Amino acid sequence: xxxxxxxxxxxxxxxxxxxxxxxxxxxxxxxxxxxxxxxxxxxxxxxxxxxxxxxxxxxxxxxxxxxxxxxxxxxxxxxxxxxxxxxxxxxxxxxxxxxxxxxxxxxxxxxxxxxxxxxxxxxxxxxxxxxxxxxxxxxxxxxxxxxxxxxxxxxxxxxxxxxxxxxxxxxxxxxxxxxxxxxxxxxxxxxxxxxxxxxxxxxxxxxxxxxxxxxxxxxxxxxxxxxxxxxxxxxxxxxxxxxxxxxxxxxxxxxxxxxxxxxxxxxxxxxxxxxxxxxxxxxxxxxxxxxxxxxxxxxxxxxxxxxxxxxxxxxxxxxxxxxxxxxxxxxxxxxxxxxxxxxxxxxxxxxxxxxxxxxxxxxxxxxxxxxxxxxxxxxxxxxxxxxxxxxxxxxxxxxxxxxxxxxxxxxxxxxxxxxxxxxxxxxxxxxxxxxxxxxxxxxxxxxxxxxxxxxxxxxxxxxxxxxxxxxxxxxxxx
Amino acid sequence: xxxxxxxxxxxxxxxxxxxxxxxxxxxxxxxxxxxxxxxxxxxxxxxxxxxxxxxxxxxxxxxxxxxxxxxxxxxxxxxxxxxxxxxxxxxxxxxxxxxxxxxxxxxxxxxxxxxxxxxxxxxxxxxxxxxxxxxxxxxxxxxxxxxxxxxxxxxxxxxxxxxxxxxxxxxxxxxxxxxxxxxxxxxxxxxxxxxxxxxxxxxxxxxxxxxxxxxxxxxxxx
Lengths: 478, 222
Description:
The complex is a heterodimer.
Chain A: H1 3-18, H2 24-47, E1 51-53, E2 56-58, H3 63-83, H4 91-113, H5 117-135, H6 141-172, H7 184-190, H8 196-214, H9 222-228, H10 232-258, H11 267-284, H12 291-312, H13 314-346, H14 357-360, H15 362-375, H16 382-397, H17 399-425, H18 439-460, H19 464-477
Antiparallel strand pairs in A: 1-2
Helix pairs in contact in A: 1-2, 1-4, 2-3, 2-4, 3-4, 3-10, 3-13, 3-18, 4-5, 4-10, 5-6, 5-10, 6-8, 6-9, 8-10, 9-12, 10-12, 10-13, 11-12, 11-17, 12-13, 13-15, 13-16, 13-18, 13-19, 15-17, 15-18, 16-17, 16-18
Chain B: H1 6-27, H2 31-56, H3 60-86, H4 99-120, H5 126-148, H6 152-172, H7 179-200, H8 202-206
């Protein structure tokens, strides 16, 4: 089996095996093992030359995302092993949780690695199904409400994406052989000859459909609730991975439409959705009382920034957008590790009830403080580098749009700093639970700090190979 | 293939009937009747898929037709009737927008779908274009139903009929690769939504299947 498929089927086989393991300790260790193997496979995939293989492809655009996905998948599995006790799962839910986690990871890899847009659609759908069940897993009314909203809105979203995929095929049909009809590479090849009006129609549906999954305003309302319910590791992978897969699908659609000079320019649509997301999220951040909802809204802001960058287009802005997506994956999952652990320690995920972490839990408090600073776009982390690049391009190319963008970014920054001060440096609130025993305390802290270290290292000194790959990816997006 | 030839006329008739059933869904006032109308729509969709399988010489579409009939014509409607009985739901449809304006909005949406699709697809064959316009109308009417009905079962049926529109679009595009796989995957999603209604038992937890009451649980209130 070629490695592109192995990285998809390994987690799925792991899911089948994990569904049979009722013991918490064995299950968490096996979960880490499967995730570590996936990580190794992703590394091997990155070391191989780019290839197209049946329904899959590896290129400069998806390889960085595959690497980050496998890394976040591994660290989240470690964090999950340390903190899953507190979720209070019975043995059925332990099985279901680990199986759903690996089903999600496999679907995530498939969505990233897919060349065939139909396969990509199916992968996004499977990822949605796996996460919906986990958002509802605590069976509280709030969890059901979040899962129901997630399901219905994303159900409509991916239905629209399928409609867009069908219209896209209709546009390209006269120029294609039947067997590779939904292949992105084949569609790119014939895009310039397709009927531009049909391409426009397809792009509208693909953008709306996958944009819903990416949490772009006005299709975002499922996102904060889905991030607030369910186990913390699921929030981390939802925000860190699923949003990227959806955005990658939007980028694939954008590159096809962009390859036809007579079709509508996709940029302004992304600019509008992106700016709306940034502005709405920046204001909404001020009204949140629930820490996980707060950071869910922050994900909307960051997806908005990335969409804005891709909307500007051109190599420099695309590079900024790609860096932003990767940085957001690393840092947002770190934030969720910190917030999740803090919520366990303080017995509440209300911002007002998590205070003074630096005084009561120094390692966690400082880690979370740095992670929130990183998500706010402060140096030296990767998001600073990407936001800086984005702003320089925006100011140079569209100064009148850069103004509201900066306004949104500053408003969001202020909200994040306020929450940072309250949660990390404010008056300490009483603890609800003691420290985790032995290795668990370490295993809960290491993923957070590791993500911060990687985000800082990439922000300061990007390895030349990765930088070259991303520069090429920025050209692919077009 | 054009107007006046049997393959074209029958495809058109079946596609049009699916759209007609979408309007029927919009003006039913009793939940049982809504479910029955949906079952009819599913059956018509299965017939349309089978006919396209015959016309295009694509045997895979027979499988799509069979699955559509079994799931949407029979099993999902039975399951929905069962939910309504077991949870003892209100048997009337609770509307957010009353029926007259809903129907008018529906007509406007069909007009919109035709205006969006027909000029945009001049390169494609007549049948594919008109089938796509019908399919988009069904999709939009499904969304309209989701927006204008307050009751979770009606919203689920709106989503299910929206998906009928997708399948109608997919089977109308001759030679579409993976059409069987994609329609099956979409069906799996819909079955999961129906399963979620069972699993969540929203009635027992929220006392009514009116989704407005779910808003109480957003967790934003102190």
